[in-house]
Specification:
single chain, alpha/beta, Rossmann fold, 8-stranded mixed beta sheet, 8 strands, 15% strand
C-alpha cells in the first residue's frame, strides 16, 4: 500500500475506486483501516473514490506520542493534510465510533474541506465514559508503571502496532517511561474532559455549529447506544438519520465486523445520501 509523509510521519493509505467524488472513511478504536475495505468496495462500485488510511499510532502508520490536543483533533488535521496532498478536498468524511468523533472534529476544524459527514455508531453516555479512558490510556499507563516500556510493547494493542510496523518498537523502547506515562495521562485527562457529553468529546454548541449535510447511522451496544445517535441527530442542524432497525443489545461492544450483514443497507443509505449532496 502507498505511504504519504503527513506532518513528518509515514501514513499508510489506500484508495479504492478510480474516479468519482471522494469519500474518507475512518475506522474506530485504534484499529487499522482494513475492516472498512468491504464497505469501501461497495461505495466504489457505486461510483465513489474511497480513501482509507491508518491514523498515526494505528495500523502500520508511524507512531508519535504527544498530547497537545485530544487524539481525534490530531487525526482530523492529519487527514486534512492527506486529502490536500491527494487533491481530494472537499470530501465526504465518515467514520465509526472514534472514527465518527474524528469526522465530527474534521467538520469543526476544516469545514471547507468537508462536503458532508457520515457518522456511524456514535459514542456517548455513562458506559463508554467509564470504559474508554481505561481502554485507550489507563491500562498502558499501568503497564509502564509496572514494567516500563518493555511491558508496554507486550500489550496487545502496542504489539499489533509493532507487528504492523517493526520500527515502532524502537521508537517505543527509546521513550522514557515517565514521559510515556505523562503523555498518556494528559491524553486521558483531555479525553475525560469531554467524555460525559451526550455525543462524546463534542459540546452541544459545537454540534449546533455544524453546517454541512450530515447522515447518522446509530449503533446498538452499550458503547454505541442508539440514544447517542439520536442525540447527535437532535443537535446537528438539518441532519438525517438512517435507522437500521436494530435492537440495542446489553453488551459492552459489538465489533464493527459483526455489522457485515448490514453493510448492503449501510452502503445504500450512504450512496443515496451522497448522491443528493
Amino acid at each position: 500500500m502507498p505511504n504519504a509523509t503527513v506532518r513528518g510521519l509515514n501514513i499508510n493509505y489506500e484508495i479504492i475506486g478510480d474516479d468519482g467524488p471522494w469519500v474518507a472513511l475512518i475506522t474506530g478504536g485504534r484499529r487499522g483501516y482494513q475492516e472498512f475495505v468491504p464497505l469501501a468496495n461497495r461505495l466504489a462500485g457505486q461510483g465513489f473514490r474511497v480513501l482509507l488510511h491508518d491514523r498515526r499510532n494505528t495500523g502500520s502508520s508511524d507512531i508519535k506520542l504527544e498530547a497537545r490536543e485530544v487524539e481525534e483533533a490530531t487525526w482530523a488535521d492529519d487527514l486534512n493534510e492527506l486529502l490536500g496532498q491527494l487533491d481530494a478536498s472537499p470530501a465526504f468524511i465518515g467514520g465509526s465510533s472514534s472514527g465518527a468523533r474524528t469526522a465530527i472534529m474534521f467538520g469543526l476544524r476544516h469545514p471547507g474541506a468537508t462536503r458532508a459527514l457520515l457518522l456511524l455508531r456514535v459514542t456517548g453516555g455513562a458506559f463508554p465514559a467509564k470504559r474508554l479512558p481505561e481502554m485507550y490510556y489507563g491500562q498502558f499507563i499501568t503497564a509502564a508503571q509496572k514494567g516500563g516500556m518493555e511491558a508496554v510493547c507486550a500489550t496487545d494493542m502496542w504489539k499489533e502496532r509493532i507487528d504492523s510496523n517493526p520500527a515502532n518498537r524502537e521508537k517505543l523502547m527509546a521513550m522514557d517511561p515517565a514521559d510515556f506515562i505523562a503523555t498518556l495521562s494528559r491524553w486521558k485527562e483531555l479525553f475525560e474532559a469531554g467524555a460525559h457529553y451526550p455525543v462524546m468529546g463534542v459540546t452541544d454548541e459545537e454540534l449546533n455549529s455544524l453546517k454541512m449535510p450530515t447522515l447518522i447511522i446509530p449503533g446498538n451496544d452499550n458503547t454505541h447506544a442508539s440514544a447517542s445517535g439520536r442525540a447527535a441527530h437532535e443537535r446537528i442542524p438539518g441532519s438525517e438519520m438512517f435507522d437500521l432497525g436494530l435492537e440495542d443489545e446489553d453488551v459492552p461492544l459489538i465489533p464493527y465486523p459483526d455489522w457485515a450483514p448490514h453493510e448492503p443497507r449501510i452502503a445504500e443509505a450512504l450512496t443515496g445520501f451522497m448522491r443528493r449532496h
